[in-house]
Design brief:
- The chain is mainly α.
- The chain contains two helices and two strands, in the order αββα.
- β1 and β2 form a beta hairpin.
Length: 80
């Protein structure tokens, strides 16, 4: 999954595949601690810190995308 789409733009099959890929080794993204995404002021440059533990899926770092999706799914909120 390297489409540049948001979670809500993915079809159900793509969403299911992402969750499966995030769960299985070597990714094991569900083992990562929850790290909130920093909020930046409008118009300000913002450097997003990179977590030490990462979520690599098919050779692509999906850490922040995964964190946002997992937080939404776990909270029962609408997908990001």
């Amino acid at each position: 999954m390297n489409t540049g789409k948001s979670w809500s733009q993915l079809n159900p099959e793509q969403q299911a595949q992402f969750v499966q890929d995030a769960f299985k080794p070597p990714a094991e993204c569900f083992e990562l601690p929850d790290i909130p995404r920093p909020k930046c002021s409008t118009g300000m440059a913002c450097r997003t810190p990179t977590p030490v533990a990462r979520c690599w899926i098919n050779g692509v770092d999906r850490t922040w995308f995964f964190m946002d999706v997992r937080r939404s799914l776990m909270n029962g909120a609408e997908a990001p």
